[in-house]
Specification:
Chain lengths: 404, 333
């Protein structure tokens, strides 16, 4: 039978599914995902634990003198409504306990364990055929499955935020609509990890493997965040030190010259000679430090680019704080803190170096703060989404090309 | 459904389908049969876009093979299907009807009807996890019909179903045919297929070995069976036809299987006890044999024209291909 013969005898091609038809399919998959989650005990356990956290918010009260937990009152110089407005206190409580601890860690772990079987179960023999043999493109099917997989976290966070909003408002009179920012933030964090989970689930069709590898990736991103921050701090300190070490060398040399000139006019005591020896040792040490330069910048660059492409779970979790509080330490405060208790004897070279070191640390802290602030919300989210899109793209490619 | 040059390779070593061509007419029940590993399920999965062909030409309901939009009008029951266990039967039907793009009103009307048709109304609101294999198969067939399809593709529909259920499924298939729907069944239960199929295709080693109505396949394969009264001899016909005496008579591989041979004119014979089967469809050409038997003193009790069963046709096709290089590892069901 030739192709031409087949074509000529072919009836009209059935019409493509309309937008309404696609909406029916999407809604059906959403309802199916809800039913799947609803059938899991872990979904309700997580909901119950969220209720306990929200209950904890309700148990905490603030007044002018301190904080009360249930009926027990504790006096506190900081946790009181005189030091901070009550909205700010509850906001901090919600962010630190609710978002950064419960939702961003424990809640996400439970969510991953609950949702990880979705893709391997979907791809198992006899199940995927039922979905693939529908008037629905494989890519759309996959993306829909990916999106509805986030329903677990979406539902949990929404319920948590609504409950927190009501409890904090009714209990403390702190009506903070900004709490609802936790919904996109936590969904974002989960979506980075969900991307990894879906890719591994698609490749291996194993729930256990998907959970384990996702957890490992999560731990690695946390470690990367810490290592990158520490290398950046050290690199900045080293860079500033290199600049100040030249000054230090000159200062020490000048100090030695002055001291030697002073000794030339008097009979040096043992203490003077020891002092001279100490100054020379300091000069040698400072010169050696200067010669070492900045050993961290190369390592930092390498780690930075790895970190650039990784999902920024910790920084994303901190977005709530950045958006709601903008609690960055102002430069003037740093300046004031670091100048506090400075030595007054500015003629002494050791005192000068000590003060220079303090100055270096102060400038390093300010520069590190500036560097961190220069990483905008778009940078944090954008680079993480690039990672997620890469995971999703790979998983989609495998899903679309595979024979089942 | 018109398929031509359907080819599927898995890597370089496995050639699952070799230039398969099939023609399924509108409104008929078409049976696809073959031994394990013949490529039947691969072919079905290609039709349903579950497997991507290496090459495929042809049309399903007017659309080129692999067109997703055509699947709106196709119902499919996969082999060893696995429904989500957290759904009830009713929810599963609604889900898969929705995925076929069936509007809500139509779903509400069809789902109870289908549950009734497959005898699952009483269990409709129980979780699928509690269903027996046969019940899942019934729900599976119902979901294949949920989108009111024009073409129904069923992969082993009677698998795990009890005899009563099988009869129900057969009746349902005939009802579907009466409604003008086309049914494509992949099954290894030859007797089931024989009862309902208008036409069949026998696949062996990735190729279509036979295709047509059972009558067409049986042409030139009719035979006559001659039964004689026992005379105490193990092989009463052996001395009658010298060609039969070849090695087959002297060393029968299995007495229950009987002895096969070939007559001088090329006609096949099969002797089992007091019965001789001769591969000859013309009554006039049997007469000399009958005369010969009488002359030899044998008493003829019965002479009967025989139409081959589907199983015999199937076995013949399998053996024919096996003789020319059967797929390694393939077993006959």
């Amino acid at each position: 039978m030739s192709h031409e013969a087949l074509t000529s005898s072919a009836p009209a091609t059935p019409p493509r599914l309309t937008f309404g038809g696609m909406a029916i399919q999407t809604r059906a998959m959403l309802v199916d995902a809800y039913r799947e989650l609803n059938s899991k005990k872990l979904f309700w356990i997580t909901m119950f634990l969220s209720g306990i956290v929200v209950g904890a918010f309700g148990a905490v009260g603030f007044d002018e003198t301190g904080v009360s937990i249930f009926w027990k009152h504790f006096r506190s110089p900081f946790l009181n409504t005189t030091f901070l407005p009550i909205q700010q206190l509850y906001k901090n409580l919600f962010i630190s306990l609710g978002v950064q601890t419960w939702l961003s860690y424990f809640g996400l772990i439970l969510a991953l364990i609950s949702t990880a079987p979705m893709i391997p179960d979907f791809l198992s023999g006899g199940a995927v055929d039922l979905f693939l043999a529908r008037p629905m493109g494989r890519l759309r099917l996959f993306v829909t499955k990916y999106v509805v997989g986030m329903l677990f976290v979406g539902l949990q966070v929404t319920v948590f935020c609504v409950a927190s909003f009501l409890v904090l408002g009714l209990r403390g009179g702190a009506w903070v609509p900004g709490l609802f920012l936790a919904i996109p933030v936590v969904l974002l964090i989960f979506s980075y990890l969900w991307g990894v989970c879906v890719l591994v689930g698609t490749l291996t069709r194993s729930t256990i493997t998907a959970i384990l590898i996702t957890m490992v990736v999560w731990l690695m991103t946390f470690a990367l965040h810490q290592v990158e921050g520490e290398l950046l701090r050290r690199s900045i300190v080293a860079r500033l030190e290199v600049a100040s070490l030249d000054t230090d060398v000159n200062r020490i040399q000048a100090g030695i010259a002055d001291f030697q000139a002073k000794l030339a006019t008097t009979q040096p005591t043992e203490s003077d000679l020891a002092r001279l020896k100490s100054l020379n040792a300091m000069l040698n040490y400072t010169r050696a430090s200067r010669a070492a330069g900045d050993p961290y910048s190369t390592w930092h660059r390498v780690v930075y680019w790895v970190y650039w492409f990784s999902p920024k779970t910790t920084e994303s979790a901190n977005l709530m704080e950045r958006w709601l509080d903008r609690q960055f330490i102002p430069e003037r405060d740093l300046d004031r803190d670091h100048r506090r208790g400075e030595q007054k004897n500015e003629d002494d070279p050791e005192t000068q170096i000590f003060q220079a070191n303090r100055e270096t640390r102060r400038l390093a802290a300010i520069e590190l703060d500036k560097e961190m602030r220069s990483r905008s919300v778009f940078w944090v989210i954008g680079t993480s989404l690039i990672f997620e899109a890469t995971m999703l793209g790979l998983a989609a490619f495998v899903f679309v090309r595979r024979d089942y | 459904m018109e398929l031509a040059h359907v080819d599927k390779r898995y890597g370089r070593s496995v050639h699952a389908l070799k230039d398969v061509s099939l023609n399924v007419r509108r409104g008929e029940i078409f049976g696809l049969l073959g031994p394990n590993g013949a490529g039947k399920s691969t072919l079905v999965k290609i039709l349903m876009t579950v497997v991507r062909p290496t090459r495929a030409e042809g049309f399903v309901l007017g659309a080129p093979v692999g067109t997703k939009s055509a699947l709106r009008r196709v119902g499919y029951l996969p082999e060893n299907h696995r429904f989500p266990r957290y759904l009830t039967g009713r929810q599963a039907l609604e889900l898969f009807a929705s995925l076929s793009g069936t509007p809500r009103d139509e779903r509400r009307r069809r789902v109870p009807e289908l549950l009734e048709q497959v005898g699952m109304t009483a269990w409709a609101d129980q979780k699928i996890g509690r269903y027996s294999k046969g019940m899942m198969q019934r729900v599976g067939i119902a979901q294949a019909l949920a989108g009111d399809p024009d073409l129904v593709v069923l992969d082993e529909p009677t698998d795990g179903v009890d005899p009563v259920g099988r009869r129900d499924i057969r009746d349902m298939l005939l009802r579907l045919k009466a409604q003008g729907k086309t049914v494509f069944i992949n099954s290894h239960l030859l007797s089931e297929l024989e009862m309902v199929s208008d036409r069949v295709a026998i696949m062996v080693a990735g190729q279509v070995a036979r295709q047509g109505t059972i009558g067409e396949l049986a042409v030139n394969r009719r035979s006559y069976e001659i039964e004689v009264e026992a005379n105490g001899t193990a092989y009463p016909f052996a001395s009658l036809f010298p060609p039969l005496r070849g090695g087959a008579v002297s060393v029968p591989p299995d007495p229950k299987e009987g002895v096969r041979g070939v007559l001088a004119d090329g006609c096949w014979t099969h002797q089992r006890g007091n019965t001789l089967r001769v591969g000859e469809s013309e009554a006039s050409r049997i007469q000399p044999l009958i005369d010969g038997l009488r002359d030899a003193g044998l008493v003829i009790r019965r002479v009967q024209p025989i139409q081959p069963t589907l199983e015999e046709l199937f076995m013949e096709a399998v053996e024919e291909v096996a003789g020319g290089g059967h797929a390694a590892g393939a077993k006959i069901k």
